[in-house]
Write a structure and sequence with these properties.
Blueprint: E1 7-11, H1 18-28, E2 32-35, H2 36-43, H3 51-58, H4 71-78, H5 82-109, E3 117-120, E4 135-140, H6 143-153, H7 158-167, H8 171-177, E5 180-183, H9 190-198
Parallel strand pairs: 1-3, 1-4, 2-3, 4-5
Length: 212
Amino acid sequence: MVVTMKVIGLTGGIGSGKSRVADLLQKEFSTYVIYTDDIARDQMKQGGCSYEKVVKQFGSEILDDSGEIDRNKLAKIIFQKEELVKLMNSLTHPNVHQEVLRQVKEVKSKGKLYSAIIVETALLFEAGYQNFCDEIWYVHAPIADRMKRLKVSRGYSEEKIESIIRKQKSEEFFLKNSTVIIENGNDVKADELRLQCKRYLTPHSGNEVRNK
């Protein structure tokens, strides 16, 4: 039996706090969360479906001593040129997309165990996830707040943060193409964030099964 269950694409720019919102939706709203970055990371490990293609394209210099792909080494190469980023995405996005669809189908086939399925991804539109999502939730935070978070959590310089933000879709694009806007600035407390989510999603009252 295939059950109609809402699929929500959860996105936002770097430092917006997508993970914070995803964690809240999973823990308190009984959702099934699919993290596309985790899938991509697993698929790029040795034996993963993206490993050979990426190594063949970018060479053994991206590997660490154990033969695994070093994401920092890879990033230093591909982020120098936009065409290399597009090439990298063309090698990995189809595999991630296929796995996301597989998980969505599998979860729906098990009945309504969850209030919704969440696809958490920074590259929602680039990867075409909007084509099967019922709603698009955009996690918004002021640029200043995002920069402060990234300086603390990742040690990024202002120049690096600004460079990354310039390469991502604009705030105007997200606001225009999203169904729901979730405000997640540094002044947004947990209770306020919870109330925002509750306006658009009711926690499932059944016996939930956690995916994480």
